[in-house]
Design a protein that fits this description.
Blueprint (H helix, E strand, L loop, with lengths): L13 H12 L19 H14 L1 E2 L6 E5 L1 H15 L4 E5 L4 H9 L3 E5 L3 H11 L5 E5 L12 H11 L4 E5 L12 E2 L5 E7 L1 H4 L7 E5 L9 H4 L2 H13 L4 H19 L8 E2 L5 E5 L9 E2 L2 E5 L1 H8 L2
Parallel strand pairs: 1-7, 3-4, 3-5, 5-6, 6-8
Antiparallel strand pairs: 2-9, 8-9, 10-11, 11-13, 12-13
Amino acid sequence: MGRVTRTVYGIYYPETRRIVDALWAERPHEWYERNYTGRQDAMHRPCFERWRAWTSAAGVTLGDGYPHEYPTAGANEAIHALLALHAAGGGKRIHVFAGDYEGYSFLGQALGLEVFVHSRDPERYRGSIAGAARPGDVFWLSQPSSIDGNLWAGFAPFREWLATGTSGVTLVVDVTYVGAVAIEPRIDLDHDVVQAVVFSLSKPFGVYYHRIGGVVSRVEVPTLRGHLWFKNLFSVHLGERLMAAHGARDLPMRYLPLQRETLDRCIADGEVPPTARPSDVVMLAHAPAGGEGFAEYARGEGLRFCLSPGMDGALRP
């Protein structure tokens, strides 16, 4: 494998490895014992309290309008549950931006939902969304954006336009990349049009197979209620400790030089075009569309590259 992939992978950082090792060494059998007493029911709450504080310190504003919170196996389970809730409630369609996370479309289509894809250019999405959207539709997007790995500067204007310019269309925001950017995100989600917020720690800490994630929602998600009892206890404790040890911007700031060094080597070896630039997300790079031999990396109206293999290789002896 080269130093670049089309699919985005996390990096199992040395810092993450040390925390996992320490938690394993504790042999925490007591978490799992006496389950008939219900003592495990609240074990996810410290992780969620930490996540709310962790994202707030990073510049994410949630407010107090998301009373329902559910631990999930990464973001994918939360996305599936919210799409299923939409479909079960009579929803017919969802909307996404071209090049955003594929899971929204794949899962939506599997549940029988029609998926409308829009350009992220305001001059184009205003007309296309107004023409295709119906009351009750849901728009899905990631911020920082999976399209190019950057914070989307147009998010706040889009959120306001969606709230006032379309009738009855709500928004689900996926903040999985918060914790993977070195700059302060400043993402305001304290708005009635945002119905739910999905998160994962897979990209910030490289803990993909530990499956640490969740959703906060304005409305109850009945299919996730059982997660009060069915959650992965090791994962929620690990998530809490990872966030306690490292602020949301700590690891991205530490690994910015490695991101740039890896990208420079990839450009020199022709693995990415010379127009590629580091993304805000520390394991990604982006470039304008075009460039012979790079069509597989197309995302929306540009190109996106994952540098995780190269960065990970540099971290290993």
